[in-house]
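Worked example (supplementary).
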Amino acid sequence: MSAVSTATGPIASEDPRRERKWRRRSLVALAILLPLTLAETCYDSLREWLHGEDLIARDVDFGQSAPFGGSDWKLADLRGGKAGRLPDHAFAVIATFTVTIGDPNLQKQWLGCKLMLTDAAGRRWLPDFISGVSLPAGLMTCTSAIFSGAKRGDVLTIGDTFIVPEDAIKTIRPAVGLGSERPWYLRFQRPPK
Amino acid sequence: MRIRILGNLVILASTVALSYGMQVSKPHYADLTAPIPVDGAMHDTVRARSFDVRLDKVVFARQLKTNQFGQEKSLTTSGLWAVVSTNLTATAASTTIADGTWQGPTGLRYRQTERLGYRQDMPPHGVDPGLEKRGLFVFEIPSDQIRGASLLISARQFGPLDAQARISLDGLPTGADGQPADVLPQYDLDAPQAQPPQGKS
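After joint prediction of all chains, the assembly is encoded as:
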């Protein structure tokens, strides 16, 4: 009995110290683990969001070509005017790109291909159907190009029609976004007048 | 020692009570991620996240006349047809506005009709920044769901945490019985808009 009581003495005095030590360790672990858990749960959503948005522009001078989605993209032409049935204060714009195919697996590289027009205020226009305006002969849209069976070295003319308000027409710049390159997208300088 | 045990028991009991309270008062996931309403009135421009909408006109009719695949059709209802004309614009990027809901005074929700099939002036409305577009939303509603109703418009039917324009329809003229003041016997969806619809009852 006396042996037991002498043995518990030092252990009892050590216990609160050990307990405090472990409590402190647990608090530190919590401070590290909580942000890590949050980061882990957000990672997939964040990655999916980044790969679905055209966020960071890569500027390309007019006349220059830039490698994008395994092919070389170059702005061929940008022209606007009144054509077809348009709303008031709106213009029809046709943007045309010359694309030299590098990687012919377009269904993978060009998935989610998006031709756009952007203006100085950061607004974006997607292609529109304009009644009374058809694409020039030989011009194909991005989606039809994906299924065209183009081979390495082929040169495609890709373009689309847009409806743009009058106040944006002076600053619009054509841009291209591809699923394999997002969040980066190409933004081209306008052709000189 | 006894005080410490008692103290621990109190902490445990309050933790259990707090956890239980949090569990029973936890909002449903659908409520947590519900669309965020942006309130407005008729004829005001309501600015949602990706689009602006202005409610111009609501016409009530007992029958709708429409042209489907070259055939003229007359659609009847036991309630009323509400044809809502809106003016739509995208804010920053071209987008589509697909969802319209008529919310009655008691909270009953009526989705836009699917009886009309595809029409260019019906949702989904493709809209561009800086370009105004007329867009229709057509509902089939009981006549007692008009006074105190509101119109909910959002880009998508299930848009968690996205903005939803909530336009109060208090400005609609109604009689003492809550019925709309003007109900047309028939409304022709294909009639030119400049001409006022004929045949008021």
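Two points are worth noting when inspecting this output. Confidence is low (pLDDT under 50) at residues 1-7 of chain A. Chain A touches chain B at residues 87, 90, 122-126, 128, 163-165, 167-168 (CB under 8 Å).
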